[in-house]
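User: I'm writing a tutorial on reading structure tokens. Could you give me a worked example: one chain, its sequence, then its tokens, then a sentence or two explaining what the tokens reveal?
Assistant: Sure. Here is the example chain.
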Amino acid sequence: MGCPPCKKGAPLWLLTFGDMMSLLLVFFILLLSFAKMDAVKFENAAGSIKDAFGVQKIKMINPIPTGEQVISMAFTQEVVLVHLIEKLHVLLSRL
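And here are its predicted structure tokens:
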């Protein structure tokens, strides 16, 4: 005797399961899109994980520049230019 003929198509529970998995995937993607990614913290976390597995390479992580750092860099460059101009005036006055 043979087995009874099988029904065509997927079982009904599989459709519900597929819908639920799709909704969960969309939900977690939505959560991830709302998350604030900090590159420095991510690099530190990735480095500690690599270090735990013994794959760490020496790499310096530079912090993300803030507005204060950019202003101070521009200011120090301006001060250096003023000093260079003053030295140039002193040298030209000796001639």
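What the tokens reveal: The chain has a mean pLDDT of 77. Residues 46 and 56 are 9 Å apart (CA to CA).
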